[in-house]
Amino acid sequence: MIGASTRLVAIIGSPITQVKSPENFNRYFEDIGLDRAMIALDLKARHVADFVAMVRGWENLDGFVVTIPHKSAVAALIDEVSPRALWLGAVNVVRRHPDGRLSGDMTDGTGFVEALRARGFALKGKSALLIGAGAAGSAIALALAETGLADLSIQDVEAERASTLVDKLTVAFPHCCSALMVGEARPFDLVVNCSPAGMFELDPQPVAQRIIDAMPPEGMAAEVITSPELTPFLRAALARGLAVQTGVEMAMAQFQLLRKVMDGAAHV
Amino acid sequence: MIGASTRLVAIIGSPITQVKSPENFNRYFEDIGLDRAMIALDLKARHVADFVAMVRGWENLDGFVVTIPHKSAVAALIDEVSPRALWLGAVNVVRRHPDGRLSGDMTDGTGFVEALRARGFALKGKSALLIGAGAAGSAIALALAETGLADLSIQDVEAERASTLVDKLTVAFPHCCSALMVGEARPFDLVVNCSPAGMFELDPQPVAQRIIDAMPPEGMAAEVITSPELTPFLRAALARGLAVQTGVEMAMAQFQLLRKVMDGAAHV
After folding, report:
1. Which parts of the sequence belong to the Shikimate dehydrogenase substrate binding N-terminal domain (chains A, B) (predicted)?
2. Any catalytic annotation for residue B124?
3. Can you list the residues of chain A whose pLDDT is less than 70?
4. Residues of chain B with CATH 3.40.50.720
5. Which stretches of chain B score pLDDT less than 50?
6. Of B79, B95, B135, residue with least CA distance to B112
7. Chain B contacts of A37, Cβ < 8 Å?
């Protein structure tokens, strides 16, 4: 139970009722017997700057997680961001130092890669296709490129969004990334859906069946959508006998990373 | 356990670890099975304005309690205050309306009077002495004057502070209030210590023994200090066989009032 001495962490977003972090964090704090709690703040966009200003003087807050739609706004308001957060122009976690200074990081992509590693899927030398070049896709593309993949293809229903991300990645990783036109098919070891298609009943399946059919037997289909846990894309991959990684698994790996940042065990 | 859908209320102050409200509120919310929690915010004075600005966009916050040293600062920043809060220039509770509008009240004095009423002590026609004309003393003096006391005397170690409060009260309650010089003694039905003397081991006993000796057998000694629960003043009153009301009893009555305000059952 929260008391006057409880240390706090927060998650901000709008809407907020869909997030899983408070349950995950609060169960963890309870399990290890820490007098600490995570609160979820449903915060309107035009009050994000007030929140960040206030947090500097909020002595018993140790940090906060940032979710949609505040990740870019917060990145611009804090004192320090990690190189990957700067590159992505977004943060998903901010640590408050005792003097009120705020430093942020972006762990969306690293959380995804951690989850793949945890299940023993080696990335070095592999080829991957990433569908959806938005915020989640950009974070995961960066984390994948950092692993030493042989080849990262990016596809988006808006072709220009995919090529812009490829251009940006090519500056840092010259021989790794290319855009894949919709309709094209090649054999990929890993296919990741980073598009929102699959959240709702009538969404189209975002990965062409020809691409799923071309994957090797030891290939992996991965998803960022957490609800439903088994999206049409993952169901199609399972039907082909492929291994799958759900958005829920990614979220759990993400939680472990965020937890370390909040505990001060991971650098921000 | 706090989740993503938990509605929140807060208490702000600095320091904050000494407050009892989070335990009281959270036990109450748990008892009635409400998915609601109170969090304690240790907030630096120069960030109070940021906090109030942010609260307007904090959609899942229903209100907040204000404690030392932010009661006056918050009163000046919100949209509406009750007449008594305006008179006192301070609020101890703010309700956030769904559109972000903030309205505040000051229940420190009414909580004290409620506690006296709850134990059957009738105030109408009685005489009272109030020691300490600071923020708590002013709030309680106003609430006592509103009950129809015959006579309210006010004493402070700084005589001018007592006479300033008497002058201010006399505008609204012309024949009720007077200052009592230190050293003077008269028989009072009720004596209230609103000074901080009694919080620490070596503090002087703030009420002259001559005043305690002059009280009638059915007289009442009351205290605002919550820790220690039995202050030197209350112990002296008990030694004379008088009834006493502790600061803890006042705080519990106060909690019931705040609870009603937060529930929207009491007007702010």
Report:
1. 11-94
2. no
3. 267-268
4. 109-250
5. none
6. B135
7. 2, 37, 39
DSSP string, B71-115: HHHHHTTSSEE-HHHHHHT--SEEEEPTTS-EEEE--HHHHHHHH
Cα A204 to chain center, whole Å? 22
Q: Mention every residue, 6+ apart, whose C-beta is less than 8 A from residue B32.
A: none
pLDDT for position A268: 58
CA distance B56 to chain A (A): 8
Q: Give the chain A residue nearest B5 (alpha carbons).
A: A17
Coil vs helix vs strand at B12: strand
CATH of A109-250, picked from 3.40.50.720, 3.40.50.300, 3.40.50.1000, 3.20.20.70, is 3.40.50.720
Q: What is the pLDDT of residue B267?
A: 65
The string of pLDDT tens digits covering residues B82-98 is 999 999 999 999 999 99
How many whole angstroms separate alpha carbon A131 and alpha carbon A26? Answer: 33
DSSP chain A: ---TT-EEEEEEESS-TT--HHHHHHHHHHHTT-SEEEEEEEB-GGGHHHHHHHHTTBTTEEEEEE-TT-HHHHHHHSSEE-HHHHHHT--SEEEE-TTS-EEEE--HHHHHHHHHHHTT---TT-EEEEE--SHHHHHHHHHHHHTT-SEEEEE-SSHHHHHHHHHHHHHHSTTTEEE--TT-----SEEEE-SSTTSSTTPPPSS-HHHHHHS-TT-EEEE---SSSS-HHHHHHHHTT-EEE-HHHHHHHHHHHHHHHHHT-S--
Q: Which fold has domain A7-106?
A: Rossmann fold (3.40.50)
Candidates A4, A16, A44; nearest CB to B57 = A44
Rounded Cα–Cα distance for residues B228 and B248 (Å): 9
pLDDT of residue A110: 93
Chain B residues within an 8 Å CB radius of A42:
58-60
Spatial distance between the Cα atoms of B186 and B162, rounded to a whole number of angstroms: 17
How many separate helices (H) and strands (E) can be counted in chain B?
Answer: 10, 12
pLDDT tens readout for residues A85-102:
999 999 999 999 999 999
In this predicted model, what pLDDT tens digit does every residue of B31-85 receive, in sequence order? 999 999 999 999 999 999 999 999 999 999 999 999 999 999 999 999 999 999 9
Q: Are strands B190-193 and B127-131 parallel, antiparallel or unpaired?
A: parallel
Kindly report, as residue ranges, where domains of CATH 3.40.50.10860 are found in chain A: 7-106
Pairing state between β A93-96 and A102-105? antiparallel
Q: CA-nearest residue of chain B to A58? A: B43
What six digits make up the tokens of A258? 């965020």
Is A114 buried (19+), middle (13-18) or exposed (0-12) by CB count in 10 A? middle
